[in-house]
Design goal:
- The protein has helices spanning about 30-40, 50-75, 80-90, 100-105, 110-120, 145-165, 170-185; strands at about 95, 125-130, 140.
- β2 (about 125-130) and β3 form a beta hairpin.
- About 10% of the residues are buried.
- It has a domain at about 45-160: Arc Repressor Mutant, subunit A, CATH 1.10.10.
- The protein has seven helices and three strands.
- The radius of gyration is 26 Å and the shape is elongated.
- It starts with about 30 loop residues before the first helix and ends with a helix.
- Keywords: DNA-binding, Transcription, Transcription regulation.
- One of its GO terms (molecular function) is DNA binding.
- One of its GO terms (biological process) is response to stress.
Length: about 190
Amino acid sequence: MTEPTHEPAPEPAAASAPSTAPPPRAAHGDEVDRIVAAWQRERPDLDVEPLAILSRVSRLARHLDLARRSAFARHHLEPWEFDVLSALRRAGAPYELSPGALLTQTLVTSGTMTNRIDRLESRGLVERHRSLDDRRGVIVRLTAAGVEGVDSAMADLLDVEAALLSDVGPDDRTRLAELLRLVVGQFEH
């Protein structure tokens, strides 16, 4: 029986100063690529392809949420406030909707919407009016302050979102929007 030979351990690499270079770009892979590769190595029996797409969507959603919150905060609005105000603004002059229409557009319960309308009304951003079509019904309308707040927040939001997409060319943006519409569509029908 032959004795195994033992090679001396290699010298440890010299410690280098921390890099101030930006993280590697997509050409060199990103964190999602590393996660996908690790799962492929650990579970070669699984098709991990969805991770390569949906993990990026999830990470993008987190970054977008932070960017939106920051843009809205500069206008003293919470994301839910912007949702309600922007639904009213998109309705066109005189910028009013029924609470039921607001429920449909913002996907919240009636109790939550009542609370939100109360809070926006107390801030002077919306006002309630009796419906001309239904004497028991109420219409929610943007005030001048509400229009000004949502318009300035929207302009700021679009600047932030354009910056997030600055590395994506116009044709790729169009294609990305089409592909995302395809995925999101299954939840909206």
